[in-house]
Amino acid sequence: MRTTGRGKPRPYRSCGDPEAETSGNSVIEHQSQISNMTAKSNDLIACPGCGARFPEQHGPTHRYLESTPGCWAAYGEVLAREYSDPAYMKVHHFTADAYPVQHPGKPSKHNMQSVIVHLIGLYAGIELGLSQQEIAILRDGATTHIELRWLEPPQNRGNLTVADIVPARAAEEHCRLVYQWAEEAWEAWTGYHDQVKQWTQIIRQAKENS
Ligand SMILES: [Zn+2]
Fold first, then answer.
1. Annotated domain spans of the chain
2. Which of 2, 24, 78, 177 has the fewest CB atoms nearer than 10 Å to its CB?
3. pLDDT tens, 52-61?
């Protein structure tokens, strides 16, 4: 589902650990949380975070990541898919970092920390190619080794959203789309790339010295 019409699609790039096991074209049926929710109407509502359009419906949202109930349900569906199969799980760190930076919310301590931590995760995963474990260590260091501040969110937060991941029906397709989604989410914050790289260096240096 191409929903926002912002930016240009990126060419295919392989994703995840090339040595990791993949389920190839195996098909997994996913129970749709969206279909289980009560749709109020057929109107499509744009998510205030990522811009993806979902039918208006009732349902929970995250307490500080601003989204529509439909977008939050789609994220839950993608997470459930990843937790249920290692072939999908290998790109989980990209999912867990892409969604928050496309849903930065309003200035608050929680959101300030969320955006920075997940931008560091995207930088470490996409540009440094670090493992999920290494990225988790860097993310943890963000809260203790750098002075957090609010980063003004970009207007354009990437052409791909979680809505583009939901339709994937095989692990290879899921991984490819999630990687492209993460790349777009990272590129959207290009104005802060230098700052994020600097913070990452500070955290790595602190870890080496500890
Ligand atoms: Zn959204």
1. 27-209
2. 24
3. 999 888 888 8
